[in-house]
Amino acid sequence: MNTCIIKFSLSLLVILHVFLSLQLFFFNHASAAELTFNIVTLGAKPDEKTDASHVLQTAWAKACDSSEPATIYVPEGIFFVRSVRFNGPCKNNAITILIDGTLVASSDIQVLANSSSWILFNHINGLSITGGIIDGQGTPLWNCKHSRKSCPIGARSLQINDGKNVNINGLSSINSQLFSIVMNRCQNVHMTRVNVLAAGDSPNTDGIHVRQSSDVTILNSNIGNGDDCISIGPGTSNMWIESITCGPGHGISIGSLGMKAEEDGVHNITVKSSTFTRTRNGARIKSWGRPSNGFATNVHFQHIIMDNVKNPIIIDQNYCPHLKDCPGQDSGVKVSEVTYEDIKGTSATKIAINFDCSPTNHCTGLRLIDIKLTYENHIAKASCKNAEGTTFGVVEPSSCLASANFYPYTIDPLGYS
């Protein structure tokens, strides 16, 4: 009798366990469905003309107010977006913007004339943007600027301010009016398989701009535009850039630094395993020729291919557009501990290495390791001003770096000393 009771009890427990598991399964799936906000379901129309801004804001409000992870889904199709602002902080730390379609801005240059950004995120912890295309429709503004008419400054396509734990994967940003993607005061950012495309003559269309941010990683991305592929501004630290194809564009630049007298420095930056094709610059550090307490230190450029690049390796501390507000062309920015390792390829000019450093703040701790850069099938030249450092391995063109003990001897970059 007792044995039968035990067997019956066990059977009940098994049935109860299965019932509860099924209930939990359906509950979780129902919850997951409730936490995916499809903008078409909410009223957006993929007709390229109906403004989806309000629908996106509604979806964001729902996702941000949820205590559970939430997804905003943009299905296939082209959705016109006038402008959107997504503000936090939110109740959860895991909001995903999943894009299968395209978000397109207005082609009317006046629509964003008073906006610094087209798509803006503020104070978000735990944001992921996955896939899709954002089209800034920048061509009319570029044409206006080329015509030298009075034009708006332009808007950045995507900007994230004060973000933490940001992940951007597979996003394509095309035809931005101004910078394509901006990270400002962000921490722990990971970008991979990002594609940026703008015309080679499009003004001020930096691909990815990072400033006042830390622990930023950019991997496996293709960038072509009319300005820096990646620009690194003041206050940036612990940044890792790897497997980037850059071109057309102005290369990967630290700077410009020293625009302000009081400015945070840049440190611990690595750029590696990347290719520059027909760009204006390759590995560049630039600072304004004016007083500043800014600095750039602990920088590594490694395993890089240059293909017909005008300035493959360059430090320019005499940056001064229109020659205004640069007393004595004397940069206060201190550049130190910069390593160039395994950089090979072709220069589009005779001077492949150009260290034009500040007369009062010499570049120090520069290291050239295994460099081979040619110009028209011959070894290129190097030019150094106020630059101190050492070389290791085979360095072609021959180094013109001065050692600290023998500075300030100069070497004529064309070899006619």
From TrEMBL:
Places the protein is found: Secreted, Cell wall
Pfam family, one: Glyco_hydro_28
Keywords, alphabetical: Cell wall, Cell wall biogenesis/degradation, Glycosidase, Hydrolase, Secreted
GO MF: polygalacturonase activity
Primary location class: secreted
InterPro entries per the UniProt record, alphabetical: Glyco_hydro_28 (IPR000743), PbH1 (IPR006626), Pectin_lyas_fold (IPR012334), Pectin_lyase_fold/virulence (IPR011050)
PROSITE patterns membership: POLYGALACTURONASE (PS00502)
UniProt keyword DNA-binding, yes or no: no
Organism the protein comes from: Cucurbita maxima
SMART domains: PbH1
Protein name, UniProt field: Polygalacturonase-like
GO annotation, biological process: carbohydrate metabolic process; cell wall organization
Residues the record marks as active site: 250
Family: Belongs to the glycosyl hydrolase 28 family.
Lineage: Eukaryota, Viridiplantae, Streptophyta, Embryophyta, Tracheophyta
